[in-house]
Specification:
Layout (H helix, E strand, L loop, with lengths): L2 H7 L6 H10 L1 E4 L5 H18 L11 H5 L1 E4 L6 H7 L2 H11 L3 E12 L6 E4 L12 E7 L10 E4 L15 H13 L4 E2 L8 E5 L4 E3 L8 E10 L10 H10 L16 E4 L3
Antiparallel strand pairs: 1-8, 2-3, 3-10, 3-11, 4-9, 5-8, 5-10, 6-7, 6-9
């Protein structure tokens, strides 16, 4: 069996303290989750697909704030077998399961987020604004395929902010950046804006506020994300057009009030009982 497959499925041992910290702070950054060899192997495949599938080719000054933030390519796993191996990693899926305390996780969707050189900042936001899901047991794995020093725009977290309700109904925009930033400062929520080493992976709740700075380097910031949800998650009636769009695109055939078990939402990891 190839080394990369072994590394994608082996157990990463979490401590009770790490699990407690994740649930308290709304996120956690874990060192040495994936090896440099594994990341190099899959970075080649993911970068190839990003370049193949990208539709944004305008000059940076011609883009809006969202388009400046990153190249965003979703559900790459459905079009490339190597990427499918990566996102179906039981190693990563088990981490997500244990952090949330669920019986397992299924795929919501994957997403490459490549921030180009001179790419702009990513405004403060929460992910679950976009998701028509019945509970808060969602987590995103943010996986750098290359090291992410400060000049490349690492993900920043508002520590403990998954508990606040203000700003959950804001789409990513200049307004969300200004209003959420002001509220977080007034509420005295500290921010973790530390860089990422190669092999370091963060996990954050769907309602944890986060942002990223601009990429002032000359290198592409290459990030792959996997969005996990409770394997028993049910579809909720969409609350906004973005949630309706997510239902149409990422959960075809799912029914309101029923477990989301479409072909695009397979179980990635489940506990054996």
């Amino acid at each position: 069996m190839p080394t990369q497959t072994l590394d994608l499925d082996s157990h990463y041992a979490l401590t009770d303290e790490q699990i407690a910290r994740f649930r308290r702070d709304g996120y956690i950054k874990l060192k040495h989750v994936l090896s440099p060899e594994v990341l190099a192997h899959y970075e080649t495949e993911i970068s190839h697909m990003v370049e193949k599938l990208r539709q944004e080719h305008r000059a940076m000054e011609q883009r809006d704030i969202y388009s400046k933030a990153f190249l965003q390519i979703s559900n790459i796993w459905t079009q490339n077998e190597a990427v499918k191996e990566f996102v179906m990693s039981k190693r990563l899926g088990r981490i997500a399961t244990e952090l949330m305390g669920t019986n397992g996780v299924r795929m919501y969707h994957d997403q490459a987020l490549y921030k180009e050189p001179s790419g702009g900042y990513t405004p403060w936001h929460v992910d679950q604004f976009y998701w028509p899901l019945s509970n808060e047991n969602t987590v995103t794995a943010w996986i750098p395929l290359v090291p992410v020093p400060m000049e490349c725009g690492p993900l920043e977290f508002s520590i403990g902010s998954q508990k606040i309700k203000f700003g959950r109904d804001f789409a990513i925009s200049e307004e969300s950046e200004k209003r959420i930033d002001q509220h977080l400062k007034v509420s005295d929520f500290p921010v973790d804006s530390s860089p990422y080493d190669l092999g370091e992976v963060s996990f954050h709740y769907g309602f944890t506020f986060h942002r990223a700075g601009p990429n002032t380097s000359k290198k592409m910031r290459k990030i792959m994300t996997i969005i996990y949800m409770d394997k028993d998650m049910k579809l909720q009636k969409p609350l906004n057009p973005n949630q309706q769009n997510d239902w149409d695109n990422w959960m075809p055939g799912a029914q309101i009030g029923q477990t989301i078990d479409s072909p695009l939402n397979p179980v990635i990891y489940q506990e054996d009982h």
